[in-house]
Specification:
By secondary structure, this protein is α/β, with parallel strands linked by helices. The protein folds into two domains: 159 residues, Stage V sporulation protein AD (Peroxisomal Thiolase, Chain A, domain 1); 154 residues, Stage V sporulation protein AD (Peroxisomal Thiolase, Chain A, domain 1, 3-Layer(aba) Sandwich), CATH 3.40.47. It contains ten helices and 15 strands. The strands form two sheets. Strands 1, 2, 3, 4, 5, 6, 7, 9, 10, 11, 12, 14 and 15 form a 13-stranded mixed sheet that branches. It has a two-stranded parallel ribbon with strand order 8-13. Helix 2 packs across helix 3 and helix 6 packs across helix 7. The radius of gyration is 18 Å and the shape is globular. The mean pLDDT is 94.
Length: 342
């Protein structure tokens, strides 16, 4: 017997409509030079953030975003029931190190660049089910740590191909809550959980092509489950497909008979940088969709220029080991509906 809170195969209804009460976005220097700079809570000019290593710096980005979000909600860490976090590093070490300083019960997540949406889906279900009153979602990425882990250390001076994307240095955090005394930026109303789609892409410098099929699958299943279409949303937002993945998604949705409405479609990987910033195919990384959502998109909810969006972050689930063994790159995309109060 299907749960009454499930719609179709993959979508979960959130009857209590948990609120996002606060958000914070901490960005690096290059991100601060882009078109969304005014939407960030802080721009850190030093990519090492005063630390000795890129990995420790990323953890500090994540802690700074989480701490800022809690303070913006007017809470203390003791009032947060659970923290959910993730990043791109082995054993999600940046998140674990940040959680160590937060002193909040912690669930570590790995969805690659889809982790912001994944954490919001899980946090919303926890709050909607009454298992938590306040749940904190924080994710991060760092250009230098990601390059060292997945491709080549910066010192190697490797030539990046046109399909490559620039991993965003930054972290975003959102507080999901059932506390009626807290402010409401928007409400979480539906979550569509992605499934693995693998089209046999092996190139770690072409993640957009690896992720786009999963985005098409999740988007089509969300529409099928809910009976909705593009006209029901102000924006469909993908996480970090970049230019290559963006174009592939347009083609795939056209082939499905669900052509994307360009006026209602936005990709975080294309929004965060200017073309003049030499990022090739666009931005990527857990921090990409995290800082765009928790900075730019939440600002638009505050200003009431957005009323309902589908936020669908995408992830390329490769690892250094799978790449070295010649494995393909599985893709994933999770989506959550965010709505303003009437």
């Amino acid at each position: 017997m299907m749960s009454p809170n499930r719609i179709g195969q993959s979508t979960i209804l959130l009857p209590s409509r948990p609120r996002i009460a606060a958000s914070a976005a901490i960005a690096g220097k290059k991100e601060g030079e882009g078109p969304l700079s005014s939407d960030f809570d802080a721009i850190i000019e030093d990519d090492l953030f005063g630390e000795e290593t890129w990995e420790k710096a990323e953890s500090r980005f994540q802690f700074a975003a989480a701490d800022a979000c809690i303070r913006k909600a007017g809470l203390t860490g003791k009032q947060v029931d659970i923290a959910l976090g993730g990043d791109l590093l082995n054993q999600i070490m940046a998140s674990a190190m940040a959680a160590r300083e937060l002193h909040i019960p912690f669930l570590g997540l790995y969805g690659a660049c889809s982790t912001m949406a994944e954490s919001l889906c899980i946090a919303s279900m926890l709050v909607d089910g009454g298992y938590a009153r306040n749940a904190l979602c924080t994710v991060s990425s760092h250009y230098c740590s990601a390059e060292r882990q997945y491709r080549f250390p910066l010192e190697y001076g490797c030539q990046r191909p046109p399909t490559a994307q620039w991993t965003v240095t930054g972290a975003g955090s959102a507080l999901v809550s059932s506390d009626d005394t807290l402010p409401t930026l928007c409400r979480c109303t539906h979550a569509t959980i992605g499934r693995i789609v693998d089209m046999a892409v092996k190139d770690a410098n072409n993640m957009g092509a690896a992720m786009a099929p999963a985005a098409a699958d999740t988007l089509a299943r969300h529409f099928a489950d809910t009976g909705r279409g593009y006209a029901d949303y102000d924006l469909i937002i993908t996480g970090d497909l970049g230019q290559v993945g963006h174009d592939v998604l347009l083609t795939l949705m056209q082939e499905r008979g669900l052509p994307l409405d360009a006026a209602r479609y936005m990709d975080c990987g294309l929004a965060i940088f200017d073309k003049e910033q030499d990022v090739h195919a666009g931005g990527s990384g857990c921090g990409c969709s995290a800082v765009v959502l928790n900075g730019h998109i939440m600002r638009r909810f505050r200003e009431r220029t957005l009323h309902r969006i589908l936020f669908m972050a995408t992830g390329a689930l490769l690892s250094p080991t799978s790449s070295q063994q010649g494995g393909t790159i599985p893709g994933i995309a999770h989506a959550i509906v965010l709505e303003a109060d009437a």
